[in-house]
Design a protein that fits this description.
- With 341 residues, the protein is of the alpha/beta class.
- The chain is built from 12 helices and 12 strands.
- Helix 1 packs across helix 2, helix 1 crosses helix 3 and helix 5 crosses helix 12.
Length: 341
């Protein structure tokens, strides 16, 4: 819950400029909450943010960062719109962007898409951002991003490039190929894919790479299973799906589902890797401590943040040679994979 102001808020002398404390009194929240709104923190209720922004407008309060922007025409602030920040991929990418922006001398204002893309964009415009990073795992977000890019230098972080948008990404297709090739080298020929949600670009690209690679080898393409990225969904699928009775390996769309899958398989007496090999994707910090330690595809989110900020700032400075970038993922082999039985 948002903190309410306690006691009498400090106010400036009569005739002085409105302060953050005046905004807090007008909005009925704490000055810490006002600060979080001004700094673009994503964990603020939409109703609270609207109250604070309305109070700022009513009393004529201008945050110091925006005041500096009005005076210099430079805020040195980058906006970030992030979808599903609680998921490992978007959350890690967000942290990478923040670290890279601060190292480059920029602050970051963030907004989630909980209340819609347009609301998030309008919120960041209020913060005086000079440029925009969008962590956009869903295809449905793309059309509106083309509109945003007309107003602000924008970089899109998604699974594959868009011809008319500046993008940065880890190569999801190549990562999935690494995973499948590893299983093929171990002699597996009946391989199942447990995919993420179908509206996520990452899930679709990994699934396409999986089917392309098996097709190129002339191997049977088994019906794809789909989870919601969570360990719980992986567990239920592993515990109940009959498909696992006739395969020797599974390529899982992320490490969290792989963790649940291994648990679910164990409840029905299927051992990993003795009976079925499992490969994940992401390389969670805890993946090395799974039982067994998980073979997976590592994405370097810190480097992705650095590349995104470097590319976006080059666009902001008018560099005519700035281009989209794809980073190469890395296969990490651990104990959840073994030669086909």
């Amino acid at each position: 819950m948002d903190e309410q102001p306690q006691g009498r808020a400090r106010r400036g002398a009569p005739g002085s400029k409105p302060s953050i404390y005046d905004v807090a009194v007008r909005a009925g929240v704490s000055h810490q909450t006002v600060s979080r709104v001004i700094n673009g923190r994503p964990n603020i209720k939409a109703s609270t943010r609207e109250k604070v922004e309305a109070a700022m407008s009513e009393i004529g309060y201008i945050p110091s960062s925006i005041a500096r922007a009005l005076a210099t025409n430079r805020s040195r602030r980058i906006g970030v719109i992030v979808d599903s920040p609680m998921e490992f991929g978007p959350g890690s990418t967000m942290r990478g962007i923040e670290q890279a922006a601060v190292a480059a001398g920029y602050s970051v204002a963030a907004a989630t898409v909980d209340d819609g893309m347009e609301a998030a964009y309008d919120h960041l415009k209020l913060q005086g951002v000079e440029a925009l990073c969008v962590i956009a795992p869903r295809y449905s977000m793309i059309p509106m991003l083309r509109e945003f890019g007309r107003d602000l230098p924008t970089i899109l972080l998604k699974a594959e490039p868009e011809d008319d948008l500046l993008t940065a990404a880890v190569d999801q297709y190549a990562g999935a190929v690494h995973a499948v090739d590893h299983l093929l080298e171990l002699g597996h020929r009946r391989i199942l894919h447990l995919a993420g949600p179908t509206d996520w670009a990452d899930a679709r690209v990994r699934g396409r790479a999986f089917s392309d690679r098996l097709g190129a080898e002339g191997l049977p393409l088994l019906p794809e299973l789909s989870g919601d990225w969570s360990s719980d969904s992986g567990y239920e699928i592993g515990r109940t799906a009959p498909e696992f009775d006739d395969v020797t390996a599974v390529f899982v769309g992320n490490d969290q589902m792989a963790l649940g899958l291994i648990h679910g398989l164990r409840t029905r007496g299927i051992r990993v890797p003795e009976d079925i090999s499992v490969v994940g994707f992401d390389d969670l910090p805890d993946a090395r401590h799974f039982l067994p330690p998980l073979t997976t595809v590592r994405q370097d989110f810190a480097e992705l943040g650095r590349v995104a900020i470097r590319t976006l700032l080059a666009r902001l400075e008018g560099d005519p040679d700035v281009a989209s970038t794809m980073l190469e993922p890395e296969l990490i082999v651990r104990e959840s994979t073994a030669p086909a039985r």
